[in-house]
Amino acid sequence: MAEVEVRDIRKTFGGPSAAVDGISLTCGDGEYLVLLGPSGCGKTTLLRMIAGLEHPTDGDILIGGRSVRGLPPRARKIAMVFQSYALYPHKKVEQNISFPLEAQGLSREERAEKVRWASGLLGIDHLLQRKPRQLSGGERQRVALARALVREPQVFLLDEPLSNLDAKLRASARLELKQFQQRLGVSTIYVTHDQVEAMGLGDRIAVLNFGRLQQVGTPEEIYHHPANTFVATFVGSPPMNLLERDGKIIGFRPENIELEKNAAARDDASIFRSQVLRVENLGADRYVYLRVKDEKGDTNVIAKLPIDHPLRVAADDDADMVVRKRHLRAFDRSTGEKTAA
Amino acid sequence: MVARSPAVAISRWAVLAVFAVLCAFPFGWATFTMFKADGDLYTVGHIPFLYNSPPTFDHVRVLFTDTAFLTFVRNSFEIGLIVVAITLAISVPAAYAIARLTGQWGGRLAITVFIFYLVPPTLLFLPLSRIVADLGLQDTIWSLVLVYPTLTAPFSTWLLVGFFRSIPRDIEEQAMVDGYSRAGAVVRTVLPLAVPGLFTVVIFTFAFTMNDFIYAVAFISSSDSMTVSAGVPTELIRGDVFFWQSLMAAAVLVAIPVALAYNFFLDRFVQGLSLGAVKG
Amino acid sequence: MRRTVIVDETVRVHHLLDREEVLGPLMLSPLMIYLVALIGLPLVLVFVYAFSDATTGAEGFSFVGLQTFQKTLDDPVFRVALRNTVVFTVIAQLVVIVLATILGFVLSADFRGRWFVRFLVLLPWTTPIALSALAWLWMLDSLFSPFNWILGQFHVVDVGTPVAWLGQDNLAVTSVVALNAWRTLPLAAVILMAGLTSIPPELNEQAEVDGAGFWRRFFDITLPLLAPIMMVAILFGIVATFTDMAAVYILTRGGPGESTQVLGSWSFITGIQGGSLAQGAAIGIFMFPVLLGVCILMLRRASRVDVV
Questions:
Q1: B67-277, CATH topology level
Q2: Which residues of B touch A84 (CB under 8 A)?
Q3: Could you tell me how many CB contacts below 8 A there are between chain B and chain C?
Q4: Tens digits of per-residue pLDDT, A45-74?
Q5: What is the ipTM for the molecules in this complex?
Q6: Is beta strand A248-252 parallel, antiparallel or unpaired with respect to A241-245?
Q7: Whether residue C173 sits in one domain with residue C143
Q8: Are A228 and A331 in contact (CB under 8 A)?
Q9: Where are the beta strands (DSSP E) in chain C?
Q10: What is the tens place of the pLDDT at every residue in C289-303?
């Protein structure tokens, strides 16, 4: 069982606040767990502690049920892919991939066989004699993965490996990564700040902010039932709209808004009177920017409607936003935590 | 800085020519006169810029056969090699430590090392000559072997810190994850990538040891152990008679290779200077 | 893909070589020991000697308070040396700043033969000081200097009374200053050149678009951005000239009649040739204020964030 668990883990760097402030989390055997959060939230620090590149100030790390605290990286049977891929520039691709095997003291034939296996799996056989500087971003990523694979690790740790790729390549790279992991069935912990990536790749997502775990759950849980306003606004693009109403914060997603003129009141939905500021036609979607009056004054709200949905309002019109009650979320006004609607 | 017109280009060339002449004239003069026959050179009436008598290699030959010049060169070379070894041995680990392992302290340590570098030999030579005498190294090349690393190590460390910093941490950490201890990771990934820096250190260390004059004359008095810088200006002048052609030959023959070496490595030197000067 | 070994217990407790807290100081210690022992200690000794009556002959020495300093300050040669050191440094480096800026500018463009020109221009700095001083000694020889011959040809001077470049007080001083400027110029130029290339071209291009002419751009953009690195170049030059011993010693031995003595050469003559460690040290100490000043300036620069 190569389950990865962190228990109450803390890390301070001597400053006033902790980089990682008491997180407990488990990545199940074979699970793809994504650590998601803005930069500085502690996700990379957490990953590095699991790898053994940083020492926790407090708490414990267990791999396969055994504490690895105090073990250097090479003893943890993990593989890591850095954001830069960290390919050894002075070695050819083939030597890059066989590098971890040299540390294990395998014979030349054994090494060659494993390199062949790994490069075959990733489709980079034709690149073996090249040097890293001769490779494209996507090719480098595959070399880094082959090198990680060749160790036959218990856990894969990936630190924003897609952020160096062209935006257009990212979607296909995501697909390859996911298929790769599912095929191998290795526990994977993946760090990213991109919530689209997180939603697409993770079996579960752990949302972090200020070194604390905000919420952990499946993508659906995170998206549809955010635990607090941070998660609600961090995940989803455009973010969840938040309004102050009746002493609480009410949230609803842009795609759950229907726009009508002079809407009639109904039981199963709330109606918000607003004014249209602007309409943006963005190909497949329409973004409508509206202004609503609430307890805090005016709040801008974004509605996302499909392009083929007939739009009956225009800029400067008065419009009513209709949101079904089951799509409404409520959060505490002072803590931001989820409360009853 | 594109030359906009021929006038600009020409004036640039003119300025360069002036500087080139200004800088190189003493050496040009030395090179020219080292082949002059005695009768030609030491006759005041002769035009100095011509070979009034045919040029001769005699004086150059004399430098090698009749003087201690080769001894001086051998001493400088031996001292240079050992000092390079010592310098590398102490500054490579130190530079790595400053660049990688000592977080906030890194900047302060680098500055401390730099301050040591600023303390000049002309201040330290007196106590050091006493220390050298007390250690019984007076008048031997070992006195210089001991002391020269103080000239070369701070600068080398500073240079290497810049080079090590330019190697991404990722690569070492990847090697550690891939199965090596930190030491193993450094040897396998960082050192190969730092070879240009190491080369630069070797060249400049050698050049710095050649450059010293004050320690060499303060610690050493017998010809046998003298370095080029100490021996040529002092020993090759017998009484008041200067064997100028041979002296100039000595100067030129040493200056040219050193200058060539500097030129090949100058870009790295400047890179090292500026990398070392920029924090983190 | 399943392996029975989850973690490698054989690498249990942190190997000494893995622990940063141990490795760091360990790797630093050889350098630090060397520097403290052979720079720090002698530095302290300089001060000790200056308050003593130490000589190269005697084994021990005793403390004499400020006596040695008094003797030093009373020594007329010392006063000349101190004044010379300051004056030579200031004049030489002023010349160097101006020339190095021009040279750095002119050398920074790419052109054919640049490598060779750079080689020539670097000769004064790359050559060991003793050997360049020797070349100057020959070049300025009162009988055989080519300059004397040229001056004689133009009848500026009598052929019978050649110019004593190193024999006449004022000329000797000028020669020493010139040698110091000449040998520090290349380093300053190279540093400035690096500074020039580090200025983003967009800044000048923007200024051009905004209508600024060459000189305006030079004084308003290039020079201010160059100032920090210029200071580095000047500080190196100041240290080199201020602490010089070889140039003066070989060129003039401090003569004629001690008129070109500087702190370095006088300290050497007093201490090694004269045998008085105490006095030599006392003389050397007067280098300290300037060195300290340079240190402080460098430190302040280092703590400032880099330009752009």
A1: MetI-like fold (1.10.3720)
A2: 168, 170
A3: 282
A4: 999 999 999 889 999 999 988 899 888 888
A5: 0.88
A6: antiparallel
A7: yes
A8: yes
A9: none
A10: 888 888 888 777 766
